[in-house]
Amino acid sequence: MNKIWLIIQREYFSRVKKKSFLVMTFLVPVLSIGMMALVIYLVAKQDDLGDKKKVEVVDENGMFKNKLKNSGSIEYSYSSENYTNAKAGLPKSGYDYLLYVPASVTGVQLFSEKKASALTIQNIQSALSDIAQSQRLLSAGIDTAILAKAQKPITLEAKQITETGEKDAQTYVAYFIGFISAFLIYMSLFIYGAQVMRGVIEEKVSRIVEVIISSVKPFQLMLGKIIGIGLVGLTQFVLWIVLSLVLSMGAGTLMVSKSSGNMTEQIAKAQGATSAQMAQVSTNAAQDSGIGKIMKSIESVPITYTILCFLFYFLTGYMLYSSIFAMVGSAVDNETETQQFMLPITLPLVFTFVISMNFIINNPDSSLSIWLSMIPFTSPIAMMMRIPFGVPAWQLATSMLLMIMGFLFTTWVAARVYRVGILMYGKKASYRELAKWFMYKE
Amino acid sequence: MRFLSFHFSSPFIPKLCLFYKIMGTNMISIRNIVKQYASQQALDDVSMEIEKGTVFGLLGPNGAGKTSLIRIINQITAPDSGEILFNGEKLTQKHIERIGYLPEERGLYKKMKIGEQILYLARLKGLDKQEAMRRIKYWFVKMEMESWWDKKVEDLSKGMQQKVQFVATVLHEPELLILDEPFTGFDPVNAEIIKNEILELNKKGATIIFSTHRMESVEELCDSIALLNLSHKILNGKVKDIRNTYRNGTYLLEYEGDHRAFDGSAPFTLLSETHHDGSHQVKIKIEGDKKVNDILQYLLPLVAINKVEEIVPTMNEIFIQTVSKSH
User: Fold this and answer.
1) Residues of chain A contacting B123 with CB distance shorter than 8 Å
2) pLDDT by residue (tens digit) across A19-55?
3) If you average pLDDT over every residue of chain A, what do you get?
4) What is the mean pLDDT of residues B136-141?
5) Is residue A272 domain-shared with residue A413, that is, in the same domain?
6) Is residue A154 a part of any domain in this protein?
7) Looking at the domain assignment, is residue A344 inside a domain?
8) How far is C-alpha A153 from the geometric centre of its chain's CA atoms?
9) For range B289-312, the mean pLDDT
10) ipTM
11) Are A23 and A119 contained in the same domain?
12) Domain termination site, one of A97, A113, A147
């Protein structure tokens, strides 16, 4: 036991002391939070950042005169020219678009030299529709007050009934957390698993393994390496979680105070709302959309529960896969030879990851999702994807139990192959060979 | 009196063998070891005794089963059947700390600092940190390695790495030291240093198992040997005794005088002769049960004898002869 501890220490400190570890630990959260902040910023500012499109409006009907609102990227001006002249003069007019509304308001056309962007077409179209709709209703004798009432949008509030009472069912936050945790597990199983494999190959290639296993049992060496590298991963995650929380709290407060007012306006504009709608949208948005709300609902997710589940699935999933990685490392003489053994390891991981991102995230309670979150080889990713949506306790318990049994089993199998493999130099390993090594007596 | 049983032993030897076993003077007793790998037999019913305080040479051509046997003694692998006694007790994991092993395929962590690496290996052998540090300092001074502490293995030459590895092997002062080809990779100067260290450790009481192809170092260092070939033990005993049994009555004779002095009546046959400035050198084989004295008696009146020397086959010759005979 004492010797395993020595091995763990060596594996741990030789990695943690490396510069690359420090760089990764601090750079990753800074970069990822920075990226997120940048994306939110760009979404909020997209209208200001894009070029202004100048639209010349030739309105033969007069219905839209001075009613089209300039939005961030579109600027309307009303021309007194007739249609034919305006159309002919478009290239030299300095306008990007010519919007032609015939007297009948049917067959409205948009001309431009270049192809019009889909977003522009959509924006103009919905602006026109909204105005035309209001106008038609007004001309049918419905008064503005009734109109405003009729146009009040309905917002749907998702609530979840739990034993402790009602709570907001914010699926986009669950989406986000599920995605991030499944992705992190997926990445880390590969990153740290490969580190274990490389460590085993290094010991085998440098031949130090024979010196070491004349002092400790091969199983102790393998376990010490796996635990040591696992602790490196754990250290990195704990640091990432702490740093990310600190940074995102900071960034969150900053964003909320600065841009929530701004944001609602942008959202409303993007929807092409009329002035009547605008007021309502912005009052709603102040409560319901906006970053403030997102931040609040992130805070409402049971963070400790999620993090504990994450650490459990990371550790057990890591133990399960890294022992297989160690087995592969023991069987080969260099890293290129590992190719033939990698497919069975990567296949379940990639498969679960892809299914998680496309299916489980939308159907967290379907039977496929439940099965995938039970099978030890797929459950670390699948279960982490489901957890933010809420998982029944019995399913979580079963999955965890199976996970523990799973990693004990793979570690046992891997150790039997490993003890023989590390002493086989220059022998081309095949699956049949591995099976033979597994069967060897002590 | 040291002794090892060998297949050409005289009748009283088995009794002595028993006597020594009771006295517990055998460091390692190897009893009927069988090891079978999937496709080939590595060791087939191999037994030998390694006496405490001796230097024991484990010899054999490549693939004879030496490394398999060494790995079994180190408990890296286990035999299919048979047993090994360490100092009279059944060999178990607790003996690991009393054995030092320098494998033929050597290696160290390339990116780890020398000092930390030796400390790590010593602690894996059960030394506590303070004691390990004290001994490392002693050996670093002794081997002139003081400035190497913070260097990485990849920055050292091959010979320097071997030195580091040797220190790591002996640091925990093992009672049994197993050295597989210890001199490969050393220049003659360093090989001499290592050889002297090995002999000094032996003088202090360590038993040494020494596996090598270099027969001249066997004659120089080993008290006893075992020769393995094709998973069988084919020769085992004290170096002196083995060489004695391979004596065939051949002598080298140097004399001055008439080189045609002796004729067919001489009590020996002439194997070869060289002549140089009146001095003659001949190789002779003594006939039947005649002794050297008989030859001298015959020669004294005829020539002036400068030198008489028995030609005893070298271990190298015995090695080649025995191995090729067993094929």
Assistant:
1) 6
2) 888 898 888 888 877 887 888 888 777 666 666 778 8
3) 81
4) 93
5) yes
6) no
7) yes
8) 30
9) 85
10) 0.78
11) no
12) A147
**Distance in angstroms (rounded) separating the CA atoms of residues B122 and B130:** 11
Q: Which domains does chain B have, with CATH numbers?
A: 13-244 (3.40.50.300), 248-311 (3.30.70)
Q: How far is residue A295's CA from residue B98's CA, in Å, rounded to a whole number? A: 63
Domain contains A45 = no
Residues 170-209 of A with CB under 8 A from B: 202-203, 205-209
Residue A365 resides in a domain: yes
Is the confidence at residue A410, as pLDDT, over 80?
Answer: yes
Cβ–Cβ contact B168 with A under 8 A: yes
* A contacts of B108 (beta carbons < 8 Å): 206, 208
Is A10 close to B120, i.e. CB distance below 8 A?
Answer: yes
Based on the domain organization, do A192 and A103 belong to the same domain?
Answer: no
Nearest-by-Cβ selection for B107 from A6, A7, A207: A207
**Residue B99: how many other CB atoms lie within 10 Å:** 25
Q: State how far the alpha carbon of B135 is from the alpha carbons of A70, A307, B129, B163, B192, in Å.
A: 84, 47, 10, 15, 22
State residue A259's pLDDT score: 52
Q: For B250-271, what is the mean pLDDT?
A: 78
Final residue in a domain of this structure, among A109, A132, A147: A147
My answer on whether A87 and A206 are in the same domain is: no
Q: Report the pLDDT value the prediction gives residue A228, as an integer from 0 to 100.
A: 96
Select from B74, B106, B108 the Cβ nearest to the Cβ of A214.
B74
Contact (CB, 8 A) for A29 and A240: yes
Is B105 within 8 Å of A423 when comparing Cβ atoms? Answer: no
The answer to whether the Cβ–Cβ distance between A216 and B124 falls below 8 Å is yes
The domain tally of chain A equals 2
> What phi and psi, each to the nearest 5 degrees, are found at residue B36?
-120, 125
Q: Do A257 and A386 fall into the same domain? A: yes
The pLDDT, as a whole number, for residue B259 is 66
Instruction: Name which of A213, A217, A436 is nearest B38 (Cβ-Cβ).
Output: A436
Helix axes A393-421, A379-386, angle to 10 degrees: 160
